[in-house]
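Input set for joint prediction.
Command: fold jointly, output tokens.
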Amino acid sequence: MGKNSSPFWQLVAREHENARAYCSRLTGNSGDGDDLYQDAVIKAFKGFDGLRQVDSFRPWLYQIINNTYKGRVRNPWWKHVLSRPTEIADHDWSHDPTDLYEARRRLDSALSALGVDDRIIVTLAELEGWRISELAELTSKTEGFIKMRLYRARTKMRKRLGSLHRRTSKRTRDKGTVNICCATEPEED
Amino acid sequence: MLCHRARRRLNECDWLHSNYSLDDELMEHLGKCPKCYSLVQAEEALRGDLGILREAQPDGDLSLDAIREKAEGLARGADRVEQDVRSFAHRLAVALMPNTRYKFAVVAIAVLVGFLAVVPFNFKEKIGYEIAIGGVEKSIALDNQKITSLLGALGMEKGKASTLLDSLGMSDIHLSVGECSETCRLTISDLKTERDVRLMVKAIIELGCCQIDNIAPIFRSESTSLLRLAARKLLS
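tokens >
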């Protein structure tokens, strides 16, 4: 092991910034992203001697990242039952004033409608700018299949966000009604 | 307009406001249908959020050298453990192989010896010969119970009889008297070898007094271990 360590680190250095950013986007925050990236790079280093074509290093590295991420995300069934998807209405947006955090939370809500594989494809396509052909090569699927999955994923995300928006606006209306009632009662007295 | 049709049109317009805003019918539907309108809002939010996050970079800095150091350290540790395990296994194999062979040999011998010493086998062992002589007069047979005196009574010279018995190395050959009518049938046993039998037969033929009915080997059944039998054969 490690006989090709120098070429390995040269290849990783080329992907370092993008792969690290991808890990952060995939996990939703920098801390978890860096942990994921580090684990994946160590795994890749161990398995580098098994890589036959150095040209395919990039998809190979991203595949390791994706597999490591899947390993982390896939929990026992009871954890899926216990963990509720994040709702926009549950957040207090006032303490995260920046657009970035708001966008991140809203996207997390939307991504929670997807499975792990779809989440990976969406992140790579929408945030990393991977082409359909690259995604097809990475997943060993056809381009048509990738397009269909992206379309379905977008529809699910839209529906999730739309329903959350409606729920939020309904709660706001309800709260407004209560406030009016409460506000008007003393006046009547 | 139905929601289904409105969403199809939105898809055709790629959900871009600049595209669908030109469609009056669709815009009218969006004004009336909160569900479809919320989807349009969600799409706009998604586009905006994805745009923001696309530009965002992770906080802080993660040095590749630190990861490299950690990865190579782990690999070195794994190599060392692997080497240690290999070395230990090799040493163990080298140390144990001769002993293992030796132990196998010892165990095999012990098992074989145990088998030979303990497990009994049935044998038939030839312990000698007997000669049945018929036509011996009753008075002679009954009066001369010892072989020397019998041979004398049958006409053998005393010195010759003594010489014969000395050559056989046995002065006390067992003599038994069998059926008797006018003559008796005698059985001479304890003749240990074929040579003894030949000498005795020759002597009886020389006397010409009686006839040899039968010469038969005497067998003894014995149940003993192979080792004990071998030891006995070697010692005898």
